[in-house]
Design a protein that fits this description.
2 domains; Spore Coat Polysaccharide Biosynthesis Protein SpsA, Chain A; about 15% strand; alpha/beta; about 575 residues
């Protein structure tokens, strides 16, 4: 996106902002105070920020001492291995720390957890030589989707060292890439959501000071520089707010630079800050000493760290029946995984075509163990999967349809999620396609997005092809009586959702093929959503029941209630009681 086009977009947004002047804005902003050093000076700086912006910005501490993507905060955020799985894998490849240009992993889950229309992100080493209230008042009615500093295009700043590792879609001309300097930013909620989705596509990579402004510009969001003299700073703020030299490696001279650093905050040494009503960076206040409010979070993170250290063996379970038409394409995607499974278990349900011949041929050259089960009698779609699962000894079990295709990083990203999160089951997003579908009509790039556009919970996606579970879950839950007619994936997803033990991975990891011989090809339609949806999308289990508990499935209720009573109350008593009550309403 050319700078001139970005300027026009910003002017249009400014007109909307002017219309809000003197009126109530769309909601109070929230702020995240990011810090990785905890001492008296850093805490005093935070208290000043809270005091001077009372009633103007709601602040949250976000403490990230270990340089990982698991900051400690009172916000109930989803771990980035779930919300930003492909970006998280980039961090793992870079040594597992966020300073490698991947601090967005520590930032955006907390931004989204606020659910606020606008969220400020302020690092602890940013200061203002004036009253913070006056600074934030300037932007109360500003509707820009991204506010940050030192915005410049590749044309303006071709020597910036971060360009070398920038990864982006081929449709973006390299000259239209943007850079920024991000100790202080503000995001709109809609941009934050879009940014996470863009990173989950796998098309973006590199330093977040590149990805944040460039994705915003490419996706049509409004971008403004907070101040200084750059071309993306509005006239009324030009030469104000802060100063720096954008094309210098350390941004110096100026008040808002990378180096040199200040030793004290303005409140402690006001004479050091000679330019009033200006932002300053960096303030490197020394000392140590942590606060008691972090102790509970420390214990929680320690438990997660124990999970992270655990090696997870993996098994892929595939049920086949007359699947030769698409089988080779699916098997090929298993071999192409960036993390190969330890074992593939194939259970064939008396196929009459050459399915078994294809599986045997594959087994001879596969780079992992392949076990083949030939059913003596026809078990049906769900029973066939259950038969295969009985052979599993591995820690993490992936269910695999014979006619889909897996993205190459599926196993790797699910393992990351299982290491960092304690849930017993994981469901990921799907790309839905049909041989008659085209990119312009019918193809669904993200089934989660499809459900959310219908104002439904993404938990309604209960397809086994997007499901992985820990072995201990199957040991606890077992399987229902076949006479109940409950599908294997319905059983697992309903119970784990009821017990708050199913996590959602926000990236499509399977291309799910819909065709005329699918055993299960149900996709929620707009008409079906209008007719069935009663529960709030914020109530995942109730939302699932709206769609599952139709008259033909009343026989599912008693087995589910019995399992929740006998096993569910041992896992999560409170959630189990609520789920039993909800199921009672459908009898």
């Amino acid at each position: 996106m050319h700078i001139a086009s970005l300027q026009r977009r910003a002017r249009k947004t400014a007109q909307k902002s002017a219309a809000l002047n003197g009126e109530a804005s769309s909601g109070i902003a929230h702020g995240l105070y990011f810090f990785h050093i905890s001492n008296d000076k850093v805490e005093k700086h935070y208290q000043r920020l809270v005091r001077e912006t009372e009633g103007q910005v709601i602040w949250h501490r976000v403490f990230n001492p270990g340089n990982r993507a698991s900051p400690r905060t009172e916000l109930d955020y989803q771990h980035p291995s779930l919300t930003m799985p492909r970006r998280y894998e980039q961090m793992e490849q870079a040594g597992g720390i966020v300073p490698a240009g991947l601090a967005d992993l520590a930032i955006f889950p907390s931004v989204l957890a606020t659910a606020a229309p606008f969220v400020w992100v302020l690092e602890f080493d940013v200061d203002y030589a004036g009253n913070w209230r006056e600074f934030f008042t300037r932007f109360e009615n500003n509707q820009a989707d991204l506010l940050t500093t030192n915005l410049a295009s590749h044309r303006d700043n071709p020597e910036w060292v971060r360009w070398r590792k920038a990864k982006h879609p081929k449709s973006l001309h390299p000259a239209n890439r943007l850079r920024s300097f991000t100790p202080l930013m503000r995001f709109s909620n809609r941009f934050a959501s879009s940014y996470v989705k863009a990173l989950n596509s796998g098309e973006w990579g590199g330093h977040y000071e590149f990805t944040i402004p460039t994705i915003a510009s490419m996706m049509g969001y409004t971008i403004e520089d907070l101040g200084n003299v750059g071309r993306l700073c509005p006239r009324e703020r030009r030469g104000k707010i802060y100063s720096s030299t954008t094309n210098h490696p350390e941004l110096t001279p100026g008040t808002f630079v990378w180096r040199p650093a200040f030793d004290s905050y303005c409140e402690d040494e006001p004479s050091t800050f000679t330019q009033k009503d200006m932002l300053y960076h960096p303030i490197k206040a020394g000392g140590i000493g942590q606060y008691n409010w972090l102790e509970a979070e420390k214990e929680m993170r320690a438990a997660q760290a124990a999970i992270a250290k655990k090696h997870l063996s993996t098994a892929v379970v595939m049920a086949t029946f007359n699947g030769s038409r698409y089988l080779n394409a699916q098997l090929k995607t298993l071999v192409e995984q960036t993390h190969l499974p330890d074992r593939l278990i194939v259970s064939d349900d008396k196929s009459s075509d050459d399915t078994l011949d294809l599986v045997r041929a594959f087994a001879r050259t596969a780079p992992f163990a392949v076990e083949i089960i030939e059913n003596a009698e026809h078990r049906g779609y769900s029973g066939n999967f259950i038969e295969a699962v009985k052979r599993v000894e591995e820690d993490l079990i992936f269910f695999c349809d014979q006619d889909d295709m897996w993205y190459e990083d599926k196993i790797h990203l699910v393992i990351n999620a299982a290491r960092e999160n304690s849930e017993l089951a994981f469901s990921h997003d799907l790309t839905i396609f049909h041989r008659a579908m085209t990119k312009k009509k019918g193809r669904i790039p993200s089934y989660f997005d499809h459900l959310r556009r219908l104002n439904l919970s993404a938990s309604i996606c209960s397809k086994g092809c997007g499901l992985a579970v820990r072995k201990e879950l199957l040991e606890e839950l077992g399987w229902p009586d076949p006479e109940a007619g409950i599908s294997y994936d319905g059983w697992l997803t309903l119970l784990t959702t009821a017990l708050n033990q199913r996590a959602l991975i926000e990236a499509p990891l399977v291309k799910h093929r819909i065709h005329d011989t699918n055993a299960s090809g149900w996709i929620v339609t707009e008409e079906e959503a209008r007719r069935k949806a009663k529960a709030s999308p914020e109530a995942p289990f109730a939302s699932m029941l709206d769609f599952y508990m139709m008259n033909s499935r009343k026989g599912w209720i008693k087995p589910l209630q019995e399992k929740l009573e006998t096993v569910g109350k041992q896992i999560n008593p409170e959630q189990a009681d609520r789920a039993i009550e909800l199921l009672e309403q459908y009898l």
